[in-house]
Amino acid sequence: MDVPSGEIDRISALPDKLLHVILGHLGYAPPSPRRPSDFVGFVDWALAHRAADADMDSLKIEFTNKQQAPASPEKVSEWLRYAAQHVVHSVDIDIGYYYGHCSGRTEPTTDEQQAVVVEVPSHGKATSIFFVLPNHRFKLLPHDPAAAAAGARHEALTNLELFSLSFSSDGHELTDFVSSCCPRLRRLLVCGPKGLRRLTLRSDSLQDFSVSGATDLQTLDVATPNLRVFYMCLCFTYRKIYGNCDEYVDGTDDKLVRVVAPKLEEIVSMYNSRRMPADLDIHDLTTVRRLTDLYLDMHEKYHSSTDGVGFWLLENCPNVEHVDVRLGHMPRGSKLAGAAEEEELVDLTSEGKAPLGKVRSLVVRATGYLKHHFVASVSSLLVRCPQLTSLRVDIMQFCIKEATWGCFCEGVADKWDICGKVALESLEEMRMTGFGGTEEEMQLVRLLFDSSASSIKRMALVHASAANNKKAGVLPDVKDIDTIYHELMKIPCAHLGSWRLSKKTFTWTSDATS
Q: Could you tell me if 202 and 181 are in contact, meaning their C-beta atoms sit under 8 angstroms apart?
């Protein structure tokens, strides 16, 4: 390669894999050593000096410096065409920060005419594609006649991740791309899409589908015979388009979500702004074995009948074996004040409630509970899961709330009266993190020993200070490790085993196990 006099060409002879790494990390380097200094120009220069017919394993182009001038949409489209012709493994193009877009904290442009167009080829060789393209509208390039005649598609593509792209309101480009161009696609992730009001997915190969931050979404229709995992979070905010606060979606007449997936095994999150079971139409929940990251808005043993997708899934997935929930307490006004007439309080432990008899593993993440209400809320779940063999409780000490802020549950007299007894005769292992030795936490430990005395084999309590949070040691209710250790030694039933303290973790082991 010709270079200016006296300079050494250090690029052309590099292996493709090393070149890929250099391009991926170039944004962190100071500007001075770059040849040329302009990042977009450097990428073009580096790609242009490769053999025209040579394939490469992976291509990663990432803008990590906010001061860098963004690439033009024409340039991004050009890189995509190059990747379609040459990359055989992964394509990763990131021209902006996407975290804010996924959570809705930025100021995205959602109007179809305002977002610039990026042209995505209808065929390629890569097995994985990862795009972070804020304010770029997804447009599928028409088939090249020669490529179309040869039936060229993204035959090898199995993983597609799209962050912060804009779409037409009916999402037809994404629908067509998945159904027509990706015959082997197994995983699809769509995060922070803008302008996408309706999405229809049809795919025989798709196994894992995630959609989050779809604030404009009005309807989602998924029919995928081999789908195993379905994740949905922070979708449906009523608005017809982001920023037009006066326009809302009327979701009272039709289902917002329709899923036909006869092999569905795991449902994740389902947390969205509506949180209404009536919005969901998920066919045949009998195949579901895992419910993950469900949000439960609990008021001791109660929850609202109109605010509980998580509870609805618990009650309607009869064969679920693993449950992972986030336990919160969202303050609500009087049950009748401004509420729909059909809203009622539901007792999770009431007589006649069928046990969740196949649940073997339960994870409870206490992310926003009320002080002194923790045990009642956790106990309400445990009553329904008599066949548990494994339990994990993660406590976030900084999320403990001191007051109810006028919540309706202040006036409910029997909120601590659990109907039924906590009986965990199959429980073998229990782990609690964020443990501070508070009165409530010690009460829960005693409850677990009492309810599983004949079966429990191991219990591990990880002290709150193990999280390496500087404030953990100054929380008023968190006791020091020595004090907790001596209190644990006095718990009834604990004499059936022995406690050991190591690296801020209290571990109890049954004598029978030893």
A: no
Rounded Cα gap, residues 488 and 494, in angstroms: 8
Q: How many CA atoms within 13 Å lie on the side-chain side of 234?
A: 14
The C-alpha atoms of residue 200 and residue 309 are separated, in whole angstroms, by 22
Rounded CA-CA distance 60/128 in Å is: 12
Q: 41-66: string of b/e by CB count within 10 Å (b at 16+)?
A: ebbbebbeebeeeeebebbbbbbeee
Q: CB-based burial of residue 429 (10 Å sphere; 0-12 exposed, 13-18 middle, 19+ buried)?
A: middle
Cβ within 8 Å of residue 482, ≥6 positions away: none
Among residues 156, 158, 196, the alpha carbon closest in space to that of 175 is found at 196
Measured at the alpha carbon of residue 389, what is the angle toward residues 387 and 391, in degrees to the nearest 5?
Answer: 110
Q: Which amino acid is at 330?
A: M
* Type of residue found at 364: V
- Check if the beta carbon of residue 315 is closer than 8 Å to that of residue 288: no
CA distance 124 to 156: 8
- Find how far residue 4's CA is from the centre of its chain: 51
What pairing do the DSSP bridges indicate for beta strands 116-120 and 128-132? unpaired
For 80, phi and psi rounded to 5 degrees? Answer: -65, -40
Q: Count CB-CB contacts under 10 A for residue 73.
A: 19
Q: Which residue has the tokens 């039936």?
A: 151
Q: Please name the residues in contact with 62: beta carbons below 8 A apart, sequence gap of 6 or more.
A: 23, 24, 27, 92, 93, 94
Q: DSSP state, 392? A: E
Query: Pick from 320, 309, 322, 317: which is nearest to 362 by CA?
Result: 322
Neighbouring residues of 473: CB distance < 8 A, sequence distance ≥ 6? 465
pLDDT in 10s for each residue of the chain, 514 residues: 455 555 555 666 667 666 666 666 555 444 433 433 477 888 888 888 887 778 999 999 988 765 555 678 888 999 999 999 999 999 999 987 544 444 443 444 444 445 688 999 989 999 999 999 988 999 987 655 555 545 568 999 999 999 999 999 999 999 999 999 999 999 999 999 999 999 999 999 999 999 999 988 889 999 999 999 999 998 886 544 334 444 444 444 467 899 999 999 999 987 765 567 777 899 999 999 999 999 888 877 887 776 668 888 999 999 999 999 998 877 766 543 444 445 677 888 877 788 999 999 999 998 777 777 788 889 999 999 999 999 999 988 656 666 656 676 777 777 666 666 899 999 999 999 999 998 889 999 999 999 999 999 999 999 988 876 554 555 667 899 999 999 999 998 777 899 999 989 999 999 887 6
